[in-house]
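User: Predict the structure for this protein chain, please.
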Amino acid sequence: MNSAPLLELSGPPRDRGFTHGQALAGRLRDFIGDSLARLGHLSDRPMDLDSLRPSIAAHRDMVTTALPDLAEEVDGLAAGAGVERDAAWLLQLRRELLGYSRVTGGDCTTYASVRNQPVLAQTVDLNGNLDDQITLLAVSGPRHRSLVLSFAGLLGYLGVNDAGIAVGLNLVLGGEWEPGVPPYLAIRHVLDTADSVDQAVEILSELPLASSRSFMVCGEERAVCVEALGSRRSLLAGDELAHTNHFLDPDFAGRDEINVFAKNSSRRRLEAVRAAGIPEAGDTAGHHRLLSTPPILVPNNGDIRRERTVAAVILRPDLGEIRLWPGDPSTAKEQVHSLSPAHGTRESEIRA
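Assistant: Here is the predicted structure, written as structure tokens:
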């Protein structure tokens, strides 16, 4: 059973990063030392930090220009953890440095509804056995407070802020991956700064993203899905939305690079959500059951290279709440964390 620690991050960007790095210093150093943040276990080509430095520097330059506060926070993470600056940046760029992997066993199933009360929920399907690297970040950002799911020193992955915005994501494969802002840092920036769904869409449309993704954005009254393919964006909107790992926009679908077998898996998971229907926002048991049942749950087959479900979440933008099952959601204990609008404090509990 896993229990994800909750870290409180506040103050200037470098201070936030230093606190994050210092709190996880031993764990992050061990992770980086495990075949270079486990990239060596996942790649068919040799992976060493020296050979990756030019690519890391190119991404860092783009992030520093587009999101200087987050670039400073990454540098603070390095200082706090006592690791090389390039190693801290590698933690933000693992997926981009690894590149396309067209054969996937899963890579997140995400859905949102604003039918009555708003809700966004998803599985987190990753390779690399990352369920031992889950952390929750309670961030006091430059504009908003947020609860952010993190893996292995990442500044962001998905989350919810006190403006009533929740953001989830899916991997999609297409276009050229090149130096730019990693999607996880883009999500963190949205949570730090966006006041509305429209503003979140504007941010995601303007940032020079390093790689293709689908972003699910849910506010209190509106849900949208932003598919990103190179510099192009596609917007899907509706009271109920679901997304897996293939492009839904017809204009983007022809440039989808996902392997046919992985695409079949993606379609099965999408149809499973549509067939089951999205539970009401307050039906925690219904969401948990859906997220914990194959094919939406991708089981562990023992291969570190294959994606499997390492967490599941329910995000409530109206409540500023995240419900997290770290590890296999069918067996994990539920953790509940919320932003208190009255005094800026956070409440959390773990439930059997």
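The first strand starts at residue 6 and ends at 9.
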